[in-house]
Design brief:
The structure is a homodimer. The first copy, chain A, is α/β, with parallel strands linked by helices. The first copy, chain A, has one domain: Class I glutamine amidotransferase (GATase) domain (Rossmann fold, 3-Layer(aba) Sandwich), CATH 3.40.50.880. Helices cover about 35% and strands about 20% of the residues of chain A. Chain A contains ten helices and eleven strands. In chain A, helix 3 packs parallel to helix 8 and helix 8 packs antiparallel against helix 9. At the A-B interface, helix 1, helix 3, strand 4, helix 7 and helix 10 of A face helix 1, helix 3, strand 4, helix 7 and helix 10 of B.
């Protein structure tokens, strides 16, 4: 059995293509600029809200450093109980070019936490891009970060979320909304499509397409594609 | 700002629907049977191979207990560097009804590890269902677990993976292959569709559909849907 393992392992070793190699093929974009993205995690975050984007961004390669940040560095449990590990606390988190805020039923652990919200408002103001998935936009809205901006959120709780944040120019039928510096997505899985859109903006279409194809993900490239807006229309 | 948080939080609190509530609505399936699923993680596992299924299975609720198992309990880094946390080591992992094996370039950390493979072969033999995502099927094949079974794997490395495991009845064009006790999926994102299929088998179609709709995931219900087989046809 051991020999069999060795043969397979040897064959595969030659073929390893990492994210950097994929990114290096793209000719359409500035190859020099590097980014650091901070993904905010909190107890009860929706697992795929963070992990879908992290799969896509995590395959970009050397031009994108990703850090996870939470109230304390260390394990953080999702709403699905599966844990991730925060690299930094709010206090020691390095500067961020991109901020990504997932949603989840644990969003109250952010919006009721004055220290966390103060950190988020400060970092969002300094970042080049502020992004959210699902009711992550509710967290941004609670900090006033979306005031005057076009934004979206998940469709199953749309009425409730948007009804409590009147200063935002909410868009109902949208997989994601790109308002320039602020990019928000609809519920959970929509964060994957938004992430590929952001990768396309920053690193070029070829890189985004290659990541989607290698991960066998059917990328919805049209930001207005949103069957879930109709499906959950009673929540409009 | 604090009052604003409280209003939003209060409004949301009444609406929390957890996985158990979703699962309880389904009338089509045996409501009594509970399952324990073990997700095997190893250094260099592909993040979404594990986290896509964990999002879907993690929303089933009380009838499905999920544990993460690795060589040692504690943090385990994915190929995308983002960490998860294993609940159990191979030694102290409880009995498993369902085994799920993700893939990733770190698969050699499984197939070169005799202790890990012995554990996997033993647990796979005892489990009611054995599932894999992406080149997780390569790990199962290396243990002889797929001998004589119909199975699939990712399409970008199809030729290499299948060429080294001739005892398996490989299926090229398939999002996933359900061979009864063994269910294997194509690359990365395909694990989400396979998971919804397994949830449908064990917990009913209504539960699977509700989870897909709440997570705004466009579920590919047809196991033969596989544009990536054609896209990576040179690797057949």
């Amino acid at each position: 059995m051991n020999n069999r393992y060795k043969v397979i392992a040897g064959l595969m070793a030659a073929l390893i293509i990492n994210g950097s190699a994929v990114a290096a093929k793209d000719e359409a974009v500035d190859k020099n600029k590097k980014y650091r993205m901070g993904v905010v995690v909190f107890e009860g975050f929706e697992l795929l809200d963070a992990m879908g984007p992290l799969e896509m961004f995590g395959n970009v390669g050397a031009r994108l450093e990703i850090v996870l940040v939470a109230e304390k560095a260390g394990p953080v449990a999702s709403a699905q109980k599966v844990k991730t590990v925060a690299d930094y606390s709010f206090e020691d988190c390095p500067e961020l070019d991109i901020v990504l805020v997932p949603g989840g039923f644990g969003y109250t652990n952010m919006i009721r936490n004055e220290k966390a919200m103060k950190w988020l408002v400060d970092r969002a103001a300094k970042a080049e891009l502020v992004t959210s998935v699902c009711n992550g936009s509710q967290i941004l809205a609670a900090g006033g970060i979306l005031d005057g901006a076009k934004a979206t959120t998940n469709k199953a709780y749309y009425k409730m979320i948007t009804g409590s944040a009147k200063e935002v120019d909410w868009v109902h039928e949208a997989r994601w909304v790109d308002d320039g510096r602020i990019i928000t997505s609809s519920g959970v899985s929509a964060g994957i499509d938004m992430s590929l859109h952001v990768i396309q903006r920053l690193f070029g279409e070829e890189t985004a397409t290659q990541i989607a194809n290698m991960t066998e993900y059917e990328w919805h490239r049209d930001s207005t594609w949103d069957p879930f807006a109709k499906m959950h229309a009673s929540q409009k």
